[in-house]
Specification:
Length: 202
């Protein structure tokens, strides 16, 4: 608990450099090769600072995923708030996914790496699970708001729909990044059709 509290206290420029250095290191070396020595050198901070605030490499990874997840969700807020039709909502969701795959593939690298780490360490699994729950809850609130506006007509509860959509998105990302030469247009189309069914009773 104390380590987690210290972790939350770190903010500002140093925190940004540390998170970016860890993200970049995992993309190049993977989790196993991303040591505090590498990260501290690339972030321009002492290794002792990383130990003090994060305690373990896995806790630093959770912080990176937390910040990336917040950015992922925040990028949906404004465009979804402006959406006037179900097509607008679908356009936002699909374009956001494609942009992440094309321009920020490291986000998915981290998700899959931290998932693997969590399978071995229950405390990491719990923390990452809480992060995902907060992300799902946030997007579910947006969907409920759009339903109240008459834009959507949800077929199931909002949290279940968001969990399904996130699962589909992450699965598609995994396939695209694994097989970049394949054309996934029809896969995206199928996923969009499934999302439309969940979001409207048309």
């Amino acid at each position: 608990m104390e380590a987690a509290t210290k972790q939350r206290e770190l903010s500002g420029e140093k925190a940004r450099r540390i998170v970016e250095a860890m993200r970049a290191s995992v993309a190049v070396r993977g989790i196993a090769g991303s040591t505090f020595e590498h990260v501290s050198r690339e972030a321009g901070v002492s290794r002792g600072l990383l130990h003090y605030y994060f305690g373990t490499k896995e806790r630093l990874l959770v912080e990176v995923v937390r910040r990336d997840s917040e950015v992922r969700v925040a990028r949906l807020d404004e465009p979804l708030a402006r959406a006037k039709t179900v097509d607008d909502v679908l356009d936002v969701l699909v374009s956001n996914l494609l942009d992440l795959i094309e321009n920020q593939p490291g986000f998915f690298d981290l998700i899959f790496e931290v998932f693997t780490a969590g399978r071995r360490k229950p405390e990491i699994q719990r923390e990452v699970g809480e992060l995902f729950n907060r992300s799902r809850d946030h997007v579910a609130e947006i969907l409920r708001a759009k339903e109240k506006e008459g834009v959507l007509s949800l077929r199931f509860d909002a949290e279940s729909i968001v969990a399904f959509l996130f699962g589909i998105a992450d699965g598609i990302a995994l396939q695209v990044l694994t097989d970049p030469d394949r054309n996934f247009d029809e896969v995206i189309e199928a996923g969009t059709a499934a999302a439309r069914y969940l979001l409207t009773d048309e």
